[in-house]
Amino acid sequence: MADDPxxxxxxxxxxxxxxxxxKKPGPWLVFASVLLAVLTVLVGTAETPNKFAxxxxxxxxxxxxxxxxFVLGKDASRDAAQEQVSQHAKSAFRRLLTLYGALExxxxxxxxxxxxxxxKHDGSTGLxxxxxxxxxxDKVRLMSAEQIATGEDALEDxxxxxxxxxxxxxxxxxxxxxxxxxxxxxxx
Length: 188
Known about the structure:
Blueprint: H1 5-14, H2 20-23, H3 25-44, H4 51-120, H5 130-161, H6 163-187
Helix pairs in contact: 3-4, 4-5, 4-6, 5-6
């Protein structure tokens, strides 16, 4: 069952108010369990042991230990799952960025070809029928636009899956694009 977005936003808003130790209760639960276990031993080994108090402390120790193990296990499994997904997401996202860039270049090239053909069209020769050339280029442009839309959807999926890794890779890709553009401008 998914969290209510409003409830999640409310929890996020109060997070800075919560002390740091309370944000990760697992270690504190383990500490409290050990403390209760020590108290149980002390009560149970006293000169006149109170069996009822020892039993209550044992029950509290067991309950707190089980809950602490649950909380720590949940945190550990979430962290392990996130790490595993992030590792797979990096390489797949890089490939998707490369595909996206190639499709964008295809779209830009089809636009440039359209402008070129319009400029070279000579109605008297009949060698290049402008309507056919435009139709062909329109198909290519539409096909590349469809692929770009699919790529954008896939990028959004990856942003949902591994947002931190995706943000780092996108920043590196933008930097590479800026460097290539600067190199191209220097050549021209």
